[in-house]
Amino acid sequence: MTGLRLAADVGGTNTRLGLARDGVLLADTVQSFRNEAFDGFADVMDLYLQDAAPGGVAEVAIAIAGPVTGTTARLTNRDWHFDAAALSQHLNGAQVHLLNDLAALGQACPHLGAECLDTVIAPTGDAGGDGQRLVAGIGTGFNLSPVLQAGGQVQCLNVEYGHVSLPLDVAEHLRNLVPEAESFATVEHLFSGRGHAAVRAHFPEGNAGTQEFLGFYAHLLALLARNLMLAFLPAQGMYFAGAVARSILTSPARGLFAERFQQPFALDARIAAPVHVILDDAAALKGCAALRLPG
Question: Could you tell me the domains of the chain?
Answer without folding.
Answer: 5-106 (3.30.420.40), 113-278 (3.40.367.20)
